[in-house]
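Recall that a protein's primary structure is simply its ordered list of amino acids. Everything else, from secondary elements to tertiary packing, is in principle encoded there. The following example makes that idea concrete.
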Amino acid sequence: MDTDIDLEWVQGDQIGLAPTNFIRTELDYSEIQSYNPTTGEIILVEPLLFRHFGNSESTDSLYDIDIRGEVVLLSRNVQIFGEDV
């Protein structure tokens, strides 16, 4: 499937990956070497230090849980504007 999922990530952007297991200190930081906006695939400058897991479907038939890990962009700011209601 050829779906455009461009997140506007570029070479040199810094990312962080949250732990995806029970060891809360196993978070990773890395720099993007390249990003494919069509597939969403990124190539990192250095390999990750820890193993990360993610799947859009739960491995447990009892609970339907999205078990993908969080990936955050660290090198640019996001501004959110709101108003009191």
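The chain has one domain: 1-85. The first strand starts at residue 14 and ends at 17.
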